[in-house]
Fold this sequence. Notes:
Butyryl-CoA Dehydrogenase, subunit A, domain 2; four-stranded mixed beta sheet; four-stranded antiparallel beta sheet; 15% strand; globular
Amino acid sequence: MDFELSEQQRMVRDMVRDYAAEQLRPGAGKRDESGEFPHALFRELASLGLLGMLAPEELGGAGMDALSYCLAIEELSRADAAVAVGVSVTNSVCQWPILRFGTDEQKRRLVPPLARGDELGGIMLSEPSAGSDLASLRTTYRRDGDVFRLNGSKAWITNAGVARRFVVLATRDAQLGAKGISAFVLDAEQPGVSVHPPEKKMGLKSSATAMVSLDDAVVPVADLLGAEGEGYKIALATLDHSRIGIAAQALGIGQAALDEALRYAKEREQFGARLIDHQAVAFRLADMNVELEAARWLTYRAAWLSEQPGRCTRTSAEAKLLASEVANRIVAAAVQVHGGYGFSREYAVERLYREARVTTIYEGTSEVQRMVIARALAALDSSAPA
């Protein structure tokens, strides 16, 4: 059992850490205020290979392993989680399922523009009445000659309005449940795709998020992902993978909050001593650090396990659950360490507090993660050694 990062993994982490500290963190507050999508930054991220981290080099990607990807998302999130989530969805819920389930022709045609950053990507999964219950989605598709036509509404779509390629889940017949769902790769630059005004969110404001309406949106038969009826399986496998990225995002937010709390505790004096010299504050910081380290190593293990044979469903759910819940506890504690200043937008912890909140919600709520874990435990062979 080796807990050391490889030289390549350390290089990725350090490169992204330096870039994020120099180019992302200084403007994070202003982007949060304006809510504008940072197109110029994404061009820079593309030049660094961070929009094609999981794609192989022959398809224009960086060919990173899953742990390197998580390290990069963690460091980006430590500086600006809104930017990190845009990077994450392009890599994890758009390119990854194409790489995993696409044909060789689909990979050669669809992946390189995404990996190079010529196009951004995303996934259209949630709907106004179908979030955690994926099998109940209502967006429909029908075959029309050599194309499919999609109709329905998708909600909370990250990168809506800025991305061109989306993996879309739709059903042939809602009465079929999971068996009727198929996956498609949609070109969003067509008349049948309408992006609604951006959502007014609590946090991650410069990440583009909106509802999308599909009105006879056309998908060529060649862009069906997998076979008809395999969409539910593709979606679950994609979520197994993408949840690890959200866990990494939560780690980055939590680390940033701990950094800010530690800095403030060393500078601020009360009752004749620095805050960190008061046991109550020092112990709070110690607990924050311990929880973060526990979540970090579970997330790293999930990343490693995602590349081993078999499914990583339980471990990815465990990592996402723990990291997101820990991040929320850490940012709340960081605000408390700051006292009244933590309630002010002049201090970064206020933004971090808002950014952390969504990590227990998207890519499956904490309650959904507990359901996934509990089902996996119920299926275990109790006679087998632990």
